[in-house]
Amino acid sequence: MIRSSAFKYGVLATLSLSLLVACATSPLGRRQLKLFSDQEIAQMGVQSYQELKSETPVTKDASVNRYVQCVAQAITRQVAGNTVWEVNVFAEDQANAFALPGGKIGVYTGLLDVAKNQDQLAAVI
């Protein structure tokens, strides 16, 4: 029995130590658990974005693309770093948008029926 509890404490101590090692400080100064490097996270975002682009049609409407690009650029200019942002408008009825690690932004055309102005679109992006 003693051996079993000693093993449990050893495992608990090892896990606790590994969690402390994996902690990092966020840009806002808060402690956070970091399971993947920034490069790995960015690569996962890029991969997910490429999959979505291959499965979901991108709108060819030039005026819609210019409008969304304008709003997205106003947002991304405020982001620190030298990320090159890729923005696409996906031809789907869902009212949603997203930003992924690796500098990827997607907006669904359904959102443009709901977001009546640039501020509303920017809030969702």
How are the secondary structure elements laid out?
Layout: H1 2-22, E1 23-25, E2 31-33, H2 38-55, H3 62-76, E3 86-90, E4 97-100, E5 104-108, H4 109-114, H5 118-124
Parallel strand pairs: 3-5
Antiparallel strand pairs: 1-2, 4-5
Helix pairs in contact: 3-5
Features:
alpha+beta, two-stranded antiparallel sheet, 125 residues, 16% strand
Report what the structure shows.
The chain is α+β, with helices and mostly antiparallel strands. The protein contains 5 helices and 5 strands. It has helices at residues 2-22, 38-55, 62-76, 109-114, 118-124, and strands at 23-25, 31-33, 86-90, 97-100, 104-108. The strands form 2 sheets. Strands 3-5-4 form a 3-stranded mixed sheet. A hairpin with a 3-residue loop joins strand 4 (97-100) and strand 5. Helix 3 (62-76) packs across helix 5. The model has no long low-confidence stretch (mean pLDDT 85).
